Amino acid sequence: MGAAICTCVSASLVNAQQSLPQNNSKTNARPEQPNRTPAPIPETKPRAEDTTYSYEFNQPEFYVRHVLITHGADGHGHLTFERLNEGESVEETLELSPAALTRILGLYQSLRFLDSDTNYQADKQFPHLGTVRIKMEQGARKRAVEFNWTNNKDAESLVNEYRRITEQAIFVFDMSVARQNQPLNAPKLLQGLETLLKRDGVSDPRQLVPLLTEISTDEHLPLIARNQAIRILKKIETGK
Question: What is the residue range of 235's domain?
């Protein structure tokens, strides 16, 4: 009986071994990896926030003899100006309105400023009107142009935009000085602002609404100045 059991067990083991798949390869071998070319590193393009713009004006005989405006694509920047017979220049922070910034960036784009080699100087020279210099930097790329008169409509419009920015910023500075130290100068300054508004000489009149609102209730200023501020506010609101 015992010999029969052993024979059955041996037969079962043999059958089990024969049923197992025969594989002479190593079970821990790793599959071959196909050769792969490293992916190319994408070229990084300059970001808008890395772009800077500048405008400079020089005419030593003008009352405002030198102006320098620098700003980024976000509209934040600085304005420096120097007046005739004044020893020190004035530097103010600058915040372009969204409307003014859109116009300026659109003009740079229309000019294809960085990609162009156009000479904006007209054949006729008018150095007595002053020389302007426009510059743009974007990453490692930069370009500057200089002229005193141009027939290029987009370049002319860009210069006019910067002139309006200059006029508006200088008015804000002068009015700040008047409110602190020279209140009697306020009526004359506001009269000058009205003249600028009539000839579209201000960058964005609506930017001046908070300041004019303060002036209209500032009892340190003459009544005529407060009334002028109210009148200008009404014109800005109606667009007239």
Answer: 182-240
Provide the 10 A C-beta neighbour count for residue 39.
6
212 closest CA partner among 95, 199, 221: 221
Q: Is residue 66 part of a domain?
A: yes
Question: pLDDT tens track of the chain, all 240 residues?
Answer: 444 434 433 444 334 444 444 444 444 555 555 555 555 554 455 566 689 999 999 999 999 999 999 999 999 999 999 999 988 999 999 999 999 999 999 999 999 999 999 999 999 999 999 999 999 999 999 999 999 999 999 999 999 999 999 999 999 999 999 999 999 999 999 999 999 999 999 999 999 999 999 999 999 999 999 999 999 999 999 986
- 64-99 burial, b at 16+ Cβ within 10 Å, e below that, comes to ebbbbbbbebebebebebbeeeeeeeeeeebebbee
Does the pTM surpass 0.85? The reply is: no
CATH of the domain at 55: 3.30.1560.10
What is the CB-side half-sphere exposure of residue 133 using CA atoms within 13 A? 12
CA-to-CA distance for 174 and 192, rounded, in angstroms? Answer: 11
Q: 3-state DSSP call for residue 152?
A: coil
Number of structural domains the chain divides into: 2
Does 186 lie in the same domain as 80? Answer: no
Q: Which residues pair with 133 in a beta bridge?
A: 56, 146
The sign of the CA dihedral 116, 123, 160, 199 is negative
Domain boundary among 128, 162, 196: 162
**Assigned domain for 9 exists:** no
